[in-house]
# Entry
Amino acid sequence: MCGIFGIFNHSQAAELSYFGLHSLQHRGQESAGICISDGEQIHTHRGTGLVTEAFGHDQHLQLSGHIGIGHVRYTTTGDSGLPNAQPLVFRYTGGQVAVAHNGNLVNAGRLRNQLERQGSIFQTNSDTEVVPHFIARSGPPIEQAIQDALRVIEGAYALLFMTETKLIAAQDPRGFHPLSLGKLADAWVVASETCALDVCGAEFVRQIEPGEMLVIDAEGLHSQSFMEPSSRSICSFEYIYFARPDSEIDAISVHTVRKELGRQICREVPTEADLVIGVPDSGLAAAIGYAEESGLPYEMGMMKNRYVGRTFIQPDQELRRKGVRMKLSVVRKAVEGKRVVLVDDSIVRGTTSGRIVEILKAAGATEVHMRVTSPPIMHPCLYGIDTARRMELIAATQTPAEICQKIGADSLHFISAEGLISATDRTDSSPNQGHCLACFNGNYPTPTS
Ligand code: AMP
Ligand code: SF4
# Structure
């Protein structure tokens, strides 16, 4: 998973890219980078860590120009170090190009082998780097070269390209991950989530459509379809967990969907209890929905130390375990002597929920009934969300009853796949309303290699 941001025709392109990436920080914490063009040359700064760390000495202020793209990275393919930080910048016969990618290419390994056998030399081990290689082979014009590259890659990709004079956005034919277009006076903004448009004061215009390539240059916007859209496969995890609650995906509020998920699981499994609490932050909206539906009081039973990042996002299990302990604590007065409904968005490896049940009981909760607003995750994601390898997924090898016992809860229920779909029901008139549910049911929307 990653976050991408692009801006065209703004004198403060670097500052706004910085703000935009900051608002997309939840999508990746391992590295951040910004490329800015002044119309003649692309200037780049990339660093590891959070946006504030990567640009710790205000390095973005040294990037001058009016076009920009930026990226926050969360490793799914390749190492997490600086060489794999994006945007990647390369030179082809038509000039310089920078590229930022959100998603994961399922055929990158095969394409890379093929290119290497034909003499290409790779500088990173990220899946994205095959794209510049195919662009370089096609040569200018850039629009054609990008389309040629997009026709050979397969998988999930929301992509931003920047040349010295153009900003180009592309969305894969299934539209796995969101990509939105906004307008800020005479400037255009493209971002993974609408919260990044809000932060720089841009107005939402529309989403980039599946199979669309949008070229933004001095003449304006030029939309081209590089591939027939396939049936829509928006990642349901974007709604469940990943996107920020103040973002909208396909004009549907993420917060509203999360509340509805809470209501839905309450309808599916009514529970005798004294109060409802949510696991901060991503379980809170669903817990409020659950409380509203059940009539039980909603309590702030857990606190999150906001100076510790997302635990799961740390690429290593030991760091993840330590992270949970540092991150969450219980408000003893709220839960002592109470039967608690505990709402969270997902169980991946089971580290978080086991620890939470343990600290709730230690604080005096008499019963903990865990309700999870995603179905059991039984298959790995191939499209850019790190839901772990299959063997690490607790639901791939254990039944809900076994998981319940393992995490020490009094009961455990996952929302049904039908319930998930109904809560994320997208009401606009677009015919492409489908979701990707592959990590729950194993039905991968693309060929898998
Ligand atoms: P685990 O401890 O492995 O069961 O992780 C579950 C917790 O991680 C949940 O509470 C989620 O909020 C969070 N989570 C779920 N999926 C992801 C993901 N792909 N990346 C980062 N965090 C996640
Ligand atoms: Fe999202 Fe799961 Fe599909 Fe991956 S497999 S894109 S996490 S719904």
Observations:
- The chain has two domains: 3-230, 248-428.
